Structures are given as structure tokens and as C-alpha cells.
Amino acid sequence: MFLKKIEIQGFKSFADRIQIEFQPGINAIVGPNGSGKSNVTDAIRWVLGEQSVKSLRGSKLEDIIFAGSLKRKPLGMAEVTVVLDNEDHFLPLDFTEISITRRVFRSGESEFYLNKVPCRLKDIQELLMDTGIGKDGYSIISQGEIDEFLLSKPEERRLIFEETAGITKHKARKKESEKKLEETSMNISRLDDLINELE
Ligand code: ATP
User: Fold this and answer.
1) Which of 3, 55, 157, 199 is deepest in the core (most CB within 10 A)?
2) What are phi and psi of 162, to 5 degrees?
3) Closest atom of ligand 1 to CA, residue 65
4) Both 33 and 91 in a single domain?
């Protein structure tokens, strides 16, 4: 599995639709300061499920939508698509190519698509959980993150190892099941009350 292509439109400095194709192995994006290199990694982070605008170097949701320039009006929507090569079926879907799309409008409304089919953010997060490429997968290391790792507390460092070891998905499922169990036991006691009232 590897990142094959990214398409960006309306995201940060990219007003026009751009497409970058990658090859297996090392690829480099070079350009002058402020030309948008980090915006490309922000776009990848965002489409893979990042929810924190701060992590995308913004302060509010609108900061990720093209804000306009001297020659161009601001845009109303940002859209990013990544295409992943899945020939090796690393991702558990029966497709040799998987596209993930995310859109956001100035109104705050968001849309997500998996292979062009509308889906929930949760579907994308679950697909990528424990693969190392999700939002917390450490496949994108930004400036300062290594220092943060070295300075982090043992409990925080443990979370990083859990994600890389592939147990985050099971922890999330366990939490969900515990919540359902709790709801069910509340329903049972409510039913007991009703039965007692009827008897
Ligand atoms: P450096 O080499 O200095 O790290 P870079 O190539 O990584 O630079 P980026 O940080 O990706 O550059 O891009 C910064 C540019 O993106 C700035 O010119 C900034 O004005 C522009 N930019 C960021 N958000 C938006 C937005 N919402 N609308 C328009 N332009 C934006």
C-alpha cells in the first residue's frame, strides 16, 4: 500500500485543483518558503481524519479554506482526495485502489467519501485505525513532534506504542461494547421496575 495521488482544491493556498502523483519509494516536494509544501501534508492529515484545526496550523475551521488573494475571491469549499494503492490488500477492502475524499463548506458542513461513496468520518477512521496511516498513525511527523515525543510522559508515550502495535482499534471497540453493556443493564433495571409495578 502506498500513497499514489493527492488532489486538492480550495484547501489553504490551493485555489485551483492540483494533482500530485507519487511513486513507490522516496518522493520529495521542493519549493520556495511559503509556497505550500506543508499545506500538502496538512491536506493529507486532514483527509485522513484530522479533527483538530490547531494540528493543521489554523485557529478556526475556515482557516483551511482558500481565503482569497489580491487577484482571487475566497472560495466556499475545500476538497481533498487521496488515492491509495491497495494492490497488496493491506487495507481490508476488496479494491486495488482506494480513494478517500473529504469536503468542508464555510457553513461548517462536512462530507466524506470512500471510493466516491458517501460515508461517515468514523468509517474512514476505522479503516485506517492501527494501519499506521490514520490521524494518529505517526506516518506524518511534523516539525517539533520528535521533541514532543522525547519530552512526553510515559503514559502519553504508551499511547504512541499502542497505536503502532495495532491495539488501538481493539481498545476503541472494547470501549464501545462497555458503553452498550452499560446501556443494556440500565434498560434491564428499567424493565425490572416496570415488571415490579405491574405485579
Ligand atoms: P516553508 O518552507 O517556509 O515551511 P511551505 O512551503 O511549507 O513554507 P506553507 O506553510 O505550506 O509553505 O504555506 C504557507 C502559505 O499558505 C502562506 O503564504 C499562507 O498565506 C498560505 N495559506 C495558508 N492558509 C491559507 C488560506 N486559508 N487561504 C489562502 N492561503 C493560505
Assistant:
1) 3
2) -65, -40
3) 27
4) yes
